[in-house]
Design brief:
By secondary structure, the chain is an alpha/beta fold. It has helices spanning 8-30, 45-61, 76-88, 107-113, 125-132, 141-152, 172-181, 196-200, 245-248, 262-284; strands at residues 4-5, 35-41, 64-70, 94-97, 161-165, 185-189, 205-208, 226-229, 233-235, 238-240, 254-255. Helix 2 packs across helix 10 (262-284). It is globular and about 55 Å long.
């Protein structure tokens, strides 16, 4: 029996609608509106597409989006000065620096320079530390999207065996923490894992986040498992995930498609984080 396809686009639309209603109410009550600054350094084609999609989502929910496009030759000092000014700007409640940055700029320095209260990507060490302690309010968008997709689809997490293939700071590690906080038993696999299938075949929930097109085959997946495909890979046919979707969907119970699965939800979670940051700053300033 073919899998249930988890429609991330549909779930994301419902979430954005709820965010839009809450932002509209805050604006009616206080006259204040949320502001998100998006910084893009260089002209990476994929980054340009991502920034365009984020800008469109801001328009949909009623967030004021300010875009800062800088040439790829921009110095690290110049970028740090821009971030410092955005940190001080009371009209900017969220700051997102699109990654990857050009090689001459140290990504860690840029992340650490961002005010953690405005870090809507959830990458700042303060927010990562809060995630470890299970006290974070700004959580990395893709891991948050994964958990939200499961919740909205009525898929239980507690007590399940979760295997995450990929250990990046952006997806793999924070996703593992979120699953741990939900009482799952979590295994992280990576490029040095031997006999990968020994682990993936045990997974009740399998998360693929490695950036290798159609790498996870059906014979690596337990029958009836839930598969979350985080991969976005481009080939001559278009976008494909890290999972071999045509064969996997005949074996699993639930699966996310690429495109239309995790991607739209990641942007919805960015909108949610911006709302969270905006509200907290209004509370801190005694406005709401």
């Amino acid at each position: 029996m073919p899998a249930n396809i988890i429609n991330g686009k549909e779930i994301a639309s419902a979430i954005k609608l709820a965010i839009a209603e809450e932002l509209k109410k805050i604006k009616t009550d206080t006259g204040r509106e949320a502001g998100l600054a998006v910084v893009l350094v260089g002209d990476d084609p994929a980054s340009i597409v991502y920034v365009r999609n984020k800008k469109k989502a801001c328009q949909e929910v009623g967030i004021r989006s300010s875009e800062y496009r800088l040439p790829k030759e921009t110095s690290q000092d110049a970028l740090l000065k821009l971030i410092a000014s955005l940190n001080k700007n009371p009209e900017i409640h969220g700051i997102l620096v699109q990654l990857p940055l050009p090689p001459h700029i140290q990504t860690d320095k840029i992340i650490e320079a961002t005010n953690p209260d405005k870090d809507v990507d959830g990458f700042h060490p303060v927010n990562v530390g809060k995630l470890v302690a299970n006290t974070a309010s700004l959580i990395s968008c893709t891991p948050l999207a994964i958990i939200t997709l499961l919740d909205k689809s009525g898929i239980p997490i507690e007590g399940r065996k979760v295997v995450i293939v990929g250990r990046s700071n952006i997806v793999g590690k924070p996703a593992a923490l979120l699953f741990l906080h939900r009482n799952a038993t979590v295994t992280i696999c990576h490029s040095r894992t031997k006999n990968l299938s020994d682990y993936t075949l045990r997974a009740d929930i399998l998360v693929a986040a490695i950036g290798k097109p159609a790498f996870v085959k059906a014979d690596m997946i337990k029958k009836g498992a839930v598969v979350i495909d985080v991969g976005i890979n481009r080939d001559e046919a278009g976008l494909i995930g890290d999972v071999d979707f045509p064969s996997a969907k005949e074996k699993v119970s639930y699966i996310t498609p690429v495109p239309g699965g995790v991607g739209p939800m990641t942007i919805a979670m960015l909108m949610k984080n911006t709302l969270t940051a905006f509200k907290q700053q209004q509370i801190d300033n005694g406005i709401i």
